[in-house]
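Entry under discussion copied across for reference:
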Amino acid sequence: MTSIEAYLSGERLYGDDLTIEQIASWYEDEREGYAHLVERYGWAETEGRYAYHPVNVLYGYRYLPKDATFARALGLGSATGDEFLPILSRIGSIDILEPSEQLKRTELQGVRLHYYKPSVDGTMPFPDDYFQLQTCFSTLHHIPNVSYVMGELHRCLAPGGFLLIREPVHSMGDWRYPRPMLTKHERGIPLGFFRQRIAQLGFTVVRESLCLTMNSFLQRTVGKWLPRSLTEYNAYVYVDMVLSRLTAFNLHYHPKNLWQRIAPQSVFYVLQKNN
């Protein structure tokens, strides 16, 4: 199997084995990549219009202990921090690792947001066992050295703390060529890669859920006629949950035909660091 075939098959993760110079180039390409897409396509990034609250609640937040509070939370690539709104009353302070200068705000409904620039090599500027909650929603697929960054998330998470991950698990097309509505380097993370790395790090898997079946296609076709993104509708998210369970068997990292595209596009993890 050639190198590119190994990446497209999902056997290896493209970008996870780059030199520091290659990582730096990738980082610079992606630094404002999403902000430029927001500006170009008019995607909502204002408070209250975050498009994935129903998804994050259904697959993530509802599996956190009901009486738990989180003194310190970390958002990896969380931009304006809106993803924390459903559980904001249970969080003391929020730190955000965010490369963009455009997608920031000083506070979120009274909770101060503290921003940090990610380092090029992925090392995080926080002590060991520091956070009780971490979120990483649609961020890792923009990052080259995912294995190392996941290790840093584990290091900074307190024993008993929770890490929530939502990421695409399909290739998102051939990243060697320009793709509409995508940044230069983003590519999905193979499900097998996640399972292996999570086991290596010693996380407990509270929940693994496949979701968002054919979401990109449905958003371009059905969703374009609606005033909000499909994932903002609770009914759509619940229907998708059933559909994703039924089509999970058909997941292919790099689908080659229409039939192979009838499958979940993302995975949602609720992970807990062992005591």
About this structure: The longest strand covers residues 157-168. Residues 234-247 form the longest helix (14 residues).
